[in-house]
C-alpha cells in the first residue's frame, strides 16, 4: 500500500490552487471574462477572496494561469498522439481524437472567452506583455515537439524551429476560429490534416543529417 503523503503547507497550497483554477474555469465559461468576478470564483471554490490573492495577483493573472494550464495539457496530449511510426491516416485519426475531445459547444465558448480576454489585454500595454509571455511558453513547448519530430526523421528543418512552431499554432488558432464561426464548413479533420500536411512538407524539404 502506498504511503499517505503528509499534507504539508506546499501541498495544501497546490490543492487550493487546483480548486481555484477549476472554479475559475467554471465561472469564466458561464459568465464571460468581464462579467466574472473573483468573489464568484472564490465562492464556487469554497474559499475566500483572500485565498485567490494568495495565489494570483489579479483576475488577469488567474485567467492567464488557467489558459496556460489548458494549453500545456493540450500540447502534451497532441505530443502523445503524434507517436512515431504512424501512417498519415493513423496520425490524422490520433490527432483528431485529441482535437475533438471537447464538444463543439465547449470549443466555441472557449474561443469566445479567449477572444474577449485577448481584446481586453490588447488595450493595456502591461497586460499585453503578460499575454506575450504566456504565449511564448506555449510556443516553446511546440518548438520542442518540432525538434523531436525532426530528430526522429533524421533531418535539419527547412525553416527555423520557432517559425515552424508558430505555423502550427497559427493553424490551430485559425482553424479553431473558423470552426467556431462556421462549424458546418470546417470539421474536426481540418486541423489534424493540416498538421500532417505540414509535417510531411518538413520531412520532404528538410536536409538529411
Folded structure, characterized:
The chain is mostly helical and 209 residues long. The chain has helices at residues 9-31, 38-45, 49-55, 59-81, 88-99, 104-122, 125-153, 161-181, 190-205; strands spanning 155-156, 207-208. Strands 1-2 form a two-stranded antiparallel ribbon. α6 (104-122) packs across α8 (161-181) and α7 packs across α8 (161-181).
List keywords for this structure.
single chain; 209 residues; mainly alpha; Arc Repressor Mutant, subunit A; Tetracycline Repressor, domain 2; 2 domains; two-stranded antiparallel ribbon; 9 helices
CATH-level-4 superfamily name of the largest domain? Tetracycline Repressor, domain 2
**CATH architecture designation of the largest domain:** Orthogonal Bundle
What value does the Rg take, in angstroms?
A: 19 Å
Q: How far from one another are the termini? A: 49 Å
Architecture blueprint of SSEs:
Layout: H1 9-31, H2 38-45, H3 49-55, H4 59-81, H5 88-99, H6 104-122, H7 125-153, E1 155-156, H8 161-181, H9 190-205, E2 207-208
Antiparallel strand pairs: 1-2
Helix pairs in contact: 1-2, 1-4, 4-5, 4-7, 5-9, 6-8, 7-8, 8-9
Précis, in short:
The protein is mainly alpha-helical and 209 residues long. Helices cover 76% and strands 2% of the residues.
